[in-house]
Every structure is written in C-alpha cells, then in structure tokens.
Amino acid sequence: MTHTVVLGPSLGTSADACWGACAALLRDEPDGFDVLAWELPGHGTDRGPIPDRLTIPDLAARVLDQVEGPFLYAGDSVGGLVGLQLLLDAPERVTGAVLCCTGARIGDDAVWDERVAQVRASGTASLVTATAGRWFGEGFLEREPARASALLHALRDTDDEGYVAVCGAIAAYDVRDRLAEITTPVVAVGGAEDAVCPPQSLTTIAEGVQHGTLVVLDGVAHQAPAERPDEVARIIRDLAEETR
User: Core-most of 58, 74, 150, 220, by most CB within 10 Å?
Assistant: First the structure.
C-alpha cells in the first residue's frame, strides 16, 4: 500500500530546497511513498496573492485542501508548527508526524519584530549571511555546498511580503498548553547545534504529546531534512511502518 507523506518547509526556503534530498529517498523506497511537498506563501514556486494576515491554522487548512485521505506528515520549523496544528485540527487525517527543528512556540515577539523590520528595510537578501550561521551545523557548507547554496538562494528569492506574513504567523503561535490533546504518534527531531529551536524545544513536544519520541541528531542545526536527509527519511519510514 502506498503511503502518502506530506512535507512542510521552513521559513525562507522552498519545498525542494528544504526537502528535495529527503523526498528523493522516500520516493525510491521499494514499497513506494506518494510524496507531496507544499510551499509557503511567496516562497519557492508559490507566487500567488499574499494574505493580509496569515495564521498557522490558515496554513494547516491549505494543507488539508491539497491532500485527499489520510497521510503521514513531516515538517521543519514553521512546517512543524503546521504539523502541530494539523494534529489538533484533523487528528483523523494524520496517521503520524515527524516534527523537525521546531517548537510549540518559536522565538518571541522581539525576535520576529526585528526580523520583519530588517526585511521591510532591506529585503530577504539581507538575511542570507546571518542565516547561514543559524541554519547549518558545523562543516555542512563545505560538505554539501550545492544543497546549502540552494537553501540560501531560496531565502534570497523569497518574496519580502510572503516572508513577513509567515513571520507574523509564527509570532502569534503558541500551543504549549495544548500538546496533551495530541494523541497521534509524534517523533520530534532536534538538531544538537540548532540555536533557533534547541533540543529542549523538541523535548517539550515529545514529552507533552501523549505518544511522543525524541531524536536529536548530532552535527545538525536548523535544516535537518537537508542536512541529514538519510536519517530523516529513515525516521519517516520507520514511523510509516509503525502506523501503517
């Protein structure tokens, strides 16, 4: 039986840059995975209208509109927030979730206000240099220059208003007090070098949901699906087998 896997990207990336290497491994599985990766507004191939106000529940609803039947979900960063919302809004649709480099709350208002102000003043291209230090574990740029470059080019090419809209959605989102409502199996995947969503953020999810598992990947920062696609694909595969 083909298992549908839905992949959610992180802020400032495209679906392909964030998940491409991992998606290729999943598609090559002998049993076959039907892989659907979605885009954030103004990111990647999405160049439609940018909503005046965007929320994480809005993004979750967009995912549900794109997928038929039950599916396994995997998301990185804001893609992980969308995964939490899907588990709250439509637990009957999501068979399991792999939530990477995320949290039930990411950052604080000051962080997002500063990021929005920078993008409004200088565009997403102004974020590239500092972002490389946040996104990648030590040595990744040297080991995988093409993959790292694709991610940073995706950030540079992201529509400014789309980036700002997603920042607003992240800033407004906090479900720390609702984690216990989640009964679907969850694997929370942290990067040992992730300063944006440190492993404790993933521990909070794994311990807060009813059926959670924590995995921390050494040498990984904030882009686990791109930094360690083989490991993330294996985690998705194992969860798919457990929930099949």
Answer: 74
What pLDDT is attached to residue 28?
Answer: 86
Expressed in angstroms, the distance from the first to the final Cα of the chain is 9
Domain range for residue 40?
3-243
Confidence of residue 104 (pLDDT cuts 50, 70, 90): very high
Listed as own residue / partner, the contacts of 152-157 with beta carbons closer than 8 Å and 24 or more positions apart are 152/128, 153/17, 154/12, 154/13, 154/14, 154/17, 154/18, 154/43, 154/44, 155/12, 155/13, 155/124, 155/127, 155/128, 155/131, 156/124, 156/125, 156/128, 157/124
- Split into its structural domains, the chain has a count of 1
> Under 8 Å CB-to-CB from 216, ≥6 apart: which residues?
189, 190, 191, 192, 199, 202
Relative orientation angle of helices 15-27 and 145-157, to the nearest 10 degrees: 140
3-class DSSP state of 98 = strand
149-207, pLDDT tens digit by residue? 999 999 999 999 999 999 999 999 999 999 999 999 999 999 999 999 999 999 999 99
CATH label of the domain that carries residue 174: 3.40.50.1820
Alpha-carbon gap, residue 111 to 104, rounded angstroms: 16
How far is the C-alpha of 91 from the C-alpha of 103, rounded, in Å?
19
Residues 6+ apart with CB under 8 A from 92: 70
Distance CA 74, CA 87 (A): 11
Average pLDDT, rounded, for the chain: 96
Bridge-based pairing state of the strands 186-191 and 212-217: parallel
